């Protein structure tokens, strides 16, 4: 039966539609005769033959003769790609703006809840971390429904999260509402963006995915000044209400990401090849297969380390600067961080477009430089404007690996397993983001200074550089098409 199905699919891809139908139904006739001669398997064969007939019907409906104007079809295809790219980038932009406001919002939350720094940091880092921590589970949702459904659902959850947080007076109530619900919504908005862009663009998918990451750098530039402006005008509650409105707009932009034929065909393939109760098991098996690749696992560990450092900088650096500087200085430092992070992402885009530079070597170098600057920060933080230099180097050295993350995962996993690979990478990012800021806050409470926190963060970044070296050493060989083999 499987050989018969394969023959049908191969002949359906030929140019002569008359031969397609003739060959298809001849194959079906052979299968019917075989089914009739085997009474034990008759019902099973008939059910599969019905599926084959429906497949042939789909082929007839989608035949070139059904399209009256080929040029019009091509024009609609280009328009669809543009709308998908625009909707995905705008959704990612709003999600990133909401996330990168948290560093400034931490100051307002701590003041509003009587200086409970560790607990408030844990809540915000949970929201920040769930954005990527739940990546593998979000990919199951994407494969079952669509990227558009994920974006719309995520935008709704973020709206509910910020709206509810505006009226909560107990800090313990923020954990499930702002931390959990908001984090789930953020994950469902961020995870499908590179996936839907990869579905829409063929051989140039790595370039367009990289460009979409630049949008995050621009959003970082907006986040901190916007948070200060909203807090000055509307206080904490008003700011949260406006953030709820921004979350609702993600639903609108998500509707632009209409599933294309590639995404629909993959969903139909999953429905035909697996029974409903076996679909989730198959997806988890795919995730486990990726975890068996040593080079991919070392890359996951390396990704964890720089997200550990990034979360500490995003949430703790404003609080560290507030001890000796004004709000204007905090905004200036975070703008410098955002500009340099954007520069790192743009540099990553240019490198990916050049296609003649080893991406993994750049990943290793950026983490080594990041670890050196963060580890040595207690030695030079007393110098004039040292916080600006620190923010600039940290922004550059976290923006570059962030932009290279998806292209490297494409190299290690291939296009066929992009969804599973991206989910695992998102999970590694989330683990680093969730545990980083609370550890930094505990160190601060224990020693009364952030020097210990920066020392720990720097050592973790250096360890990430070492894991990156292992990834390059144990990388799986490439196949003839330039993709890394992933058997």
Automatic annotation (TrEMBL):
InterPro entries: MFS, MFS_trans_sf, Proton-linked_MCT. Keywords: Membrane, Transmembrane, Transmembrane helix. The chain crosses the membrane at residues 82-110, 122-142, 149-168, 174-196, 208-228, 234-257, 296-321, 333-354, 361-382, 388-408, 420-440, 452-474. The keyword Transmembrane applies. The keyword Transmembrane applies. PANTHER family: GEM-1, MONOCARBOXYLATE TRANSPORTER. This is MOT12-like protein.
